[in-house]
Design brief:
By secondary structure, this protein is mostly helical. It has helices at 3-33, 49-72, 77-102, 107-128.
Length: 132
């Protein structure tokens, strides 16, 4: 692994750690803030909130595990990080519409996450390939 790849890997470790903490914190805050008066299992605004909360919590946990796996340099780290990055990318892309409509300042970290994840996909796919 050359110096540039090590720098990208270190950046991804730190970024996925912050992303995981952000996603877990945001979804736990949404759960505790009482946004949904009827509960998270009731139909609200053409969706059931429990599924969106579950997806956010799963994305945050996958992001933290991916950061940890890159840190310990496991043999499965890049493939798991690619999977986790896909989950994080899709969750933020889906949540971006709601954030732009209701609270636009919440869209700023989501846009940053989407852009960084898009930039990291080629690196992760190259490192995941079986034959270099």
């Amino acid at each position: 692994m050359n110096k540039r790849d090590r720098q990208i890997q270190l950046f991804l470790q730190i970024f996925l750690l912050f992303t995981g903490v952000y996603l877990l914190g945001l979804n736990i805050w949404k759960l505790n803030s009482g946004i949904w008066e009827e509960g998270i299992f009731e139909f609200y605004n053409q969706e059931v909130p429990v599924f969106k909360l579950g997806a956010g919590l799963i994305s945050g946990i996958l992001s933290l595990i991916a950061s940890w796996s890159l840190w310990i340099r496991a043999s499965w780290a890049y493939s798991f990080t690619l999977l986790g990055a896909g989950f994080v990318f899709l969750y933020n892309l889906i949540s971006l519409g709601e954030a732009i409509y209701s609270t636009p300042y919440h869209a700023i970290p989501m846009v940053i996450i989407v852009i960084v994840m898009l930039q990291s996909f080629p690196f992760l796919m190259r490192r995941t390939s079986r034959y270099p």
